[in-house]
Amino acid sequence: MDKSAIFLGFFIVFLVFMVVSAVVAGMKNKQGNTGATTEYFLGGKNIPVIVLAMSYCASAVSAGSFIGDPGYMSTIGWPYYWFTIFTIGGLVIPGLFIMRKLRLQSERYGCLTITQYIGDRFNSKWIKVYISAVMVLCYLFMMVSQFKGAAVLLETYTGVNFNIGLIVMAVVVAFFVNYGGLRSVAWTDFFMGCFMVILSLSLVVVCFSHVGWYGGLHAGLEATHPDYNVIYQTGAGATFPWYSIPCIFLFSFLVMFSQPYITARYIAMPNISRKSVGTFLIISLITGLLFNTMVQLGLVGAVLFPEADPDYLTVTMSVEFFPTVIAGVAMIGFFSAMLSTASSILLVCSQAIGQDIYGQVKKNADEKSILRVTQISTVVIIIGIVFFNIYKTPDLLQVFVLLSLAGVGSMLCAPTFLGVLWPKARREGAWCAVISGPLSYFLMDTILGWPFPIAMGLCAVPPFVLMWVVSVALNKTKGEDAEMVRMATIDPDTYFAES
Amino acid sequence: MQAWMIMLGCQFTVVAISAVWVLIWMRRPKDAYDLMLDKLNAAAEKKAEGE
Q1: B3 interfacial to chain A (CB closer than 8 Å)
Q2: How do residues A439-498 score in pLDDT, each as one tens digit?
Q3: Closest alpha carbon to A145 in A260, A262, A311
Q4: Number of Cβ within a 10 Å radius of residue A231
Q5: Cβ of B44 under 8 Å from any chain A Cβ?
Q6: How far does CA A487 lie from the centroid of its chain?
Q7: Contacts by A319-323 with C-beta closer than 8 Å and gap 24+?
Q8: Cα(A39)–Cα(A29) distance, rounded to whole angstroms?
Q9: Predicted confidence (pLDDT) per residue in A110-166, tens digit
């Protein structure tokens, strides 16, 4: 049987699985009793911890670790790996400080999304609208690149035309997100995550054995790309100088952690006890480590397949090294990586439009109409993604991903961290943070032309500084906003009396 | 020392610190936040059973 036909068969099974899980999740949403929006946006808050943890990692990792990051690494070398090193810890450690308080505060405010939390925490409907608008714009770029990646992948494996593959996947993802909400996204992420674990382990072992493990990799790079065998770059115009390392740390622990499609899982956790939070974080750590090991395959690909397209090195290696059936399973892993993140982001963007823009602007909007607008937004966004991909396909995938992450993360990191941890943080400070974050990134990256690892990390600093300075100054001159401080303070003596 | 040794060493260090930190945090005695969350969890379970 022709290889392409086998791969197409695998892909059809994968799509059917997504559709079935959406239908099952949608039926469960209808049976749930926590309210239509809570069922849709938070899975009724009864999704098991292991499913949420795997979903957390699968969404965070995305096509980045499996395709984009190895591709980028194959053009830069070991210095790029600092992103991987710090991202693993950055997804876990801040959770210890943030998770429980965020959950207690969001229960008090009745929040379903991180945008809603920031709006309620700082008592500003317009901050919700602003954040939602910027987030949708930034994430649109990321989704364009995820879908492009998936369509090119499909064409590479099965021969299905790019445009047709794009439209098929767009329709399936739109149905899957619209009908099932977070429940279908989380459960499918879980199963996709399992495929991704199998893919990571098998592809890393096979590819490294072909190159001669780390000794062979080092020797291969010395022969072909000796400038890759360094931990930071030197010389004028270096993208990863030594001072990019602390910037990448800042990016991972502040900017990456604050992505709404990641923090959505914290609000959705059914049971916030030390045991369940710890379990969630440990599972995230282990699966994150496994997935991120794939990034090293960029260097293996640079040695073994120097002529291959950087964005598809891992795909090339899976087709070259695996028997057809195993390559088919690997293909499912790649699609899982892309579509899990694309669906999580799509859900967050639709939520932002339905809940945080429409729900704020339209007075007395009921749950049903919010859900309807959310679902219509999903379809409109998908149409935009397909249009953009057909008429203005982006080049290197990872560029768009990084732009989106930095834009949204720099906007949200200060209001999230300071909002949770500092009851005296003020609304005016939050406004300064959400405006200065994306502006800082734009200034550093585009106007000043700083290397992207430095811009992506340092763009988190101005929002924190501004939010702190403005809040302290206004608290001193105008006095504290007593009501806001009271609502943000988690006091065991008064919490339940007031909830 | 080769670059891969340093990078993988750093990765191992970050993962080990993270894992140990989480495990120690998990085993610490309950604080006020834990008690509040227990109450919330219990209330949510009661509500789910009642309906």
Answers
A1: yes
A2: 999 899 989 999 999 999 999 999 999 999 999 999 999 998 888 888 888 877 777 765
A3: A311
A4: 20
A5: yes
A6: 29
A7: A319/A156, A319/A157, A321/A203, A321/A206, A321/A207, A321/A210, A322/A202, A322/A203, A322/A206
A8: 5
A9: 887 788 899 999 999 899 999 999 998 888 888 887 888 788 888 878 888 888 888
Contacts of A91 (CB under 8 A, 6+ apart): A56, A57, A60, A252, A256, A257, A262, A284, A285, A288
Three-state SS at A188: helix
Tokens of A305: 């397949």
DSSP code for B30: P
Name the residue among A84, A231, A495 with its Cβ closest to that of B6. A231
d(CA A237, CA A244): 13
Considering CB atoms only, which of B3, B15, B37 is closest to A104? B37
Q: Which ipTM value was assigned to this complex?
A: 0.90
Q: Which has the minimum average pLDDT: A7-16, A93-102, A317-326?
A: A7-16
- On whether the pTM is more than 0.95, the answer is no
Tell me the C-alpha distance between A456 and A454, whole Å: 5
Q: Residue A450, SS3?
A: coil
Work out the burial of residue A350: count CB atoms within 10 Å of its CB; fewer than 13 is exposed, 13-18 middle, 19 or more buried.
Answer: buried
Q: Does A372 touch chain B (CB under 8 A)?
A: no
Helix, strand or coil for residue A235?
coil
The beta-carbon neighbor of B18 closest among A230, A271, A285 is: A285
> Cβ–Cβ of A78/B7 closer than 8 Å?
yes
Is A418:A425 a contact under the CB 8 Å cutoff?
Answer: yes
Q: Which residues of A116-143 are buried (b: 16+ CB within 10 A; e: fewer)?
A: bbbbbbbebeebbbbbbebbbebbbbbb
